[in-house]
Amino acid sequence: MELYGYWRSSASYRARIALNYKQLDYNYIPVHLIKEGGEQHKQSYRQLNPNGLVPTLVDGSVILHQSLAIMEYLDEKYPEPSLLPGNAQKRGAIRALSLDIASELQPLINLRVQQYLVRELGADDEAKQAWLQHWFSQSFTAFERNLEEVSGKFCVGDEFSMADVCLVPQVYSAERFGIALENYPLLREVYQRLIELPWVANAHPSQQPDAES
């Protein structure tokens, strides 16, 4: 398998955690999102992923984009250990929390949105920070309330799941952007457990071959 990604991309981070959790060997191919106007825009990469986003997983003849689709594919092809453990109700909760991060929050604060705010709308650093603070606050406030209902040792009960995979990179991003986390004690507690797990620690952006100091 090959994983095309970028060291600091939240979605790429998710895919790395999932692959590590399932102990699957893969070749990591960096796609620099900023250098030379962004390698994701080059025709050679667009042939793999017409959206020009990361990650892209290549597994033989299978080419997949979107981190949640990649995780569900991996879970179906390599079912153990499962990223969607438990009964239908528990799997529903896992999917809901995963989508809260991957579909509601992350698309509003990712690189291309921030670039658009600055380049097209003329947002200065203060305005951009206010944008990030607003969306992180809305998302993490709701996430914290959901954790009160379904969390245990991890996001949903006591088993590692796709919801945990989605949470880790977004908290990493929040810390990178200077977002205060004191109002989310359950979120922080779960996150601290998660980053101690070896398959999570090895997926950290700083451990990737394309990481920059």
Automatic annotation (TrEMBL):
Any one Gene Ontology cellular component term annotated for this protein: cytoplasm
GO molecular function: glutathione transferase activity; maleylacetoacetate isomerase activity
Domain (GST C-terminal) ranges: 87-213
InterPro entries: Glutathione-S-Trfase_C-like, Glutathione-S-Trfase_C_sf, Glutathione_S-Trfase, Glutathione_S-Trfase_N, GST_C, GST_Zeta, GST_Zeta_C, GST_Zeta_N
Keyword annotations: Isomerase
Domain of life of the source: Bacteria
GO biological process: glutathione metabolic process; L-phenylalanine catabolic process
Keyword Signal: no
Protein's UniProt name: Maleylacetoacetate isomerase
Species the sequence originates in: Pseudidiomarina maritima
High-level lineage: Bacteria, Pseudomonadati, Pseudomonadota, Gammaproteobacteria, Alteromonadales
